[in-house]
Amino acid sequence: METHLHFSLNVFQSVVSRDLDENQRATRANFIQKLINKKKHLEGRLKLIGGANKYEGNIYIYHAGRWGAICDDSWDEAAAQVACRTFNRTGVATHGGQFGEATEKFWMDDVVCEGNEPSLLQCIFSGWGSSDCERSEVAGVICREKIEESPLPLKQPKRMKTKTFLHQVLDVRGTSLRLVGGRNSNEGRVEIYHKGIWGSICPDGWTIYEAAVVCKHLALGYAEQALQTDYFGSSRIVLSGLQCEGNETNLFMCKHGEFGNVFCPGEKGYVAGAVCTRYLPDLLLDTTVIERTAHLHDVPMFQLQCAMEENCLSKSAYEIQQTNSNWQFETRRLLRFTASSLNIGNAEFRPYLPKHLWQWHLCHMHYHSMEVFATFDILHAAGNRIAEGHKASFCLEDNTCLPGVEQKYSCKNYGDQGVSINCSDIYHYNIDCQWVDVTDVVPGYYTFKVAVNPHARVAEQQYHNNVASCMLTLSDTYAAVHGCKLERP
């Protein structure tokens, strides 16, 4: 063992010297490749730590030779199902370090799954190691055995309770809404008045979309924050399962689960709260630019090495890199396009991360202020994602402005980043990672979706202009994007 360790150290010392000849470079490459191959079979493997058994705990994923935690931002039941499927089980998500604080660095953040992915690697996330989470914000799961249904006796399947519109069960003429417990009239816990009683709303599933409708209902402008908290006090919970699209004019147009005596999971005393404001940005995605600029581009992999470092190609590209010594001469087919977002709001769009947490990207020679500003997905007819963009992080700046508006934000020289009112942030099709790798996608008809601010990490006036949902015709020689329409993420 000591002889082997001594040999490895000598090899390592010799290959990291400053002046390397061709043989030494080959030795270094072989040494590193052996280390990579040794750990390759662990890539993407999961383990659960801190639980009462091996099927529950905080979740850790193996990547690049080490284990790392997953942040609980955007972590939900769909992601938990994907994780537990690894252990041939079903399960539920846990948040806030339920099984203790993270003991490793965070590998993944803002994980968004549909629930049918074979592994977490196929879900959307902010990029390896891109996280602003504290050690207490670690995600976890509780995995349970799948229940096998017996064919006999035959039972009627249990039906899920259908959600109905609030106005169908309440007399809206005698129903009121208010914010109470806040420092001013623009914030507080949300209470609803019905039949002489004020009651709170269950925070389970409470999002910025529901809060936006509350602020609009009360003529307080837009939702700056949607809170699940006891900070504003609490009262008896009378409404659960609230679900809004975000563009309703009042809360009674939203759907709900139960009203009256309701069950509310989660921490005791926590209720739905909102903070309203009259000033927010509003990004409008330009669908015409996407349709006009989308095209296919075949690129040899030796020109994509910088993009590969940012995980901007599909999985097969990295498999080729590991197995083919001449991988640099292989070609990838990219669906390139330009994405332009105009801020039509009455406030600047600013990154939510403080400046000291921005990441320097050597390939682009500037700082990136947002891990996930946009997502690019290709879906087949059933709605399942078959290809996606992997742009790791983004730089926000004023590329063009309407006449009379001065450009304020720039990515150069560690400058402040953002999108000013009446200015556009433009990612041109010739920028690295401004594409979807469609090398493995068979010709056919698909849906192509481009979303900006997809997780609503930055509050906006509205969100139904943040996604361009387009038809994609893909052949062996060309791609056509057409029929784009705006919708919500």
TrEMBL record:
Cofactor: Cu cation
Residue stretches making up the SRCR domain: 46-144, 177-277
UniProt xrefs under Pfam families: Lysyl_oxidase, SRCR
UniProt keyword terms in alphabetical order: Copper, Disulfide bond, Glycoprotein, LTQ, Metal-binding, Oxidoreductase, Receptor, Repeat, Secreted, Signal, TPQ
Protein name stated in the entry: protein-lysine 6-oxidase
GO molecular function, one term: protein-lysine 6-oxidase activity
Top-level EC class as recorded in UniProt: oxidoreductase
Catalytic activity field: L-lysyl-[protein] + O2 + H2O = (S)-2-amino-6-oxohexanoyl-[protein] + H2O2 + NH4(+)
Subcellular location(s) per record: Secreted, Extracellular space
UniProt record similarity statement: Belongs to the lysyl oxidase family.
GO cellular component: extracellular space; membrane
Alphabetized InterPro entries for the sequence: LOX-like_protein (IPR050912), Lysyl_oxidase (IPR001695), Lysyl_oxidase_CS (IPR019828), SRCR (IPR001190)
Entry keyword Secreted: yes
The keyword Lyase is annotated on this UniProt entry: no
Disulfide topology: C113-C123, C215-C276, C244-C254
Known EC number: 1.4.3.13
